[in-house]
Write a structure and sequence with these properties.
3 domains; alpha/beta; single chain; Zinc Finger, Delta Prime, domain 3
Amino acid sequence: MTAIKAGAAESFVTRPDSSYKVILFFGPDRGLVSERADKISQKIAARDGGGISRIDASRLNEEPDALSIELYSPALFEPISVVRVTDDGGLAARIAPVVTDPPETCTLIIEAGDLKPGAALRKLTEGVQTAAAIGCYPDTAGALMRLIEQTLAQAGISASREVRGELQAHLGADRMVSQNEINKLLTYIHPRKQLTLQDIEAVCGDATVADAVQAIDAAFEGKLDLCGEETDRFFLRGIPGAQLVRNTLGHVRALHIARLRFDSTGSPKSAISGSGARFHFKRHETVERQLRIWTAAKLRKVLSELGEIEQQCRYHPHLEDVIAARQLARIAIMAGAARKQH
């Protein structure tokens, strides 16, 4: 089986192995799916000296042989090194012959949504040595910080640890959205080479963080009724549910870092002051209580769930307030159950 593990995904994309002729990128983080598909396509095209062809789902429906023609037929003009397709739910049957008899001079790159382990596309690409499947999941705090540091370094921008931590707290779980936010910051500060807290506040910050704090703290302390009341107040201000989810993501990342330090020091005060996370001093007591309720493992689980919830808000904007409120209530219920166990 050729399922590329999460830790090896970036190196695989940066230095693609020529023995793989069918490569599937899938997962809930569609921004990361697209980013990795773009990157590996460029790498393969540069390595093999050919172009990149994209076939959309409508063309495949109208021309069933289009995929085979692109992959196996010699090009009349520029040779084709990469053919890209996006799964429309019925792609597995079309690529089965390609997996069985892969092309010699061309690589097929497939983009798909979140696929379960038994999904046909995953079974096809994970079951042979000439194909590979790479899962793309919402960024963890570490992966998001690497994205920040790499992007700033490539642009020649310096930023203190405090500034990088503040930027991380303002970013969501979707890789493409996060990258776009960082790029906006770089455009804003040009031609300066130093990123400051004021820059982040000007571009990424707004009053919604303060507006969301009461609902978020109520949820993570397990106060379900208060969470509902504060969530309603948040929405009465006309702020969309997706923003509440992004604010919650920032809080979970900061709380997770503090919890890891709490595990090593045993002191909630040291965990808060030494984690690099910027909790307002008026919130220190509630954050201490949250550190005692939430384990690092449970916070990682919530972080993963919130990444999927952020996607749902994007795809269903007419339901984003309901989606966000339901998720915050779920967090409150989890916290309430954990409190009873202490």
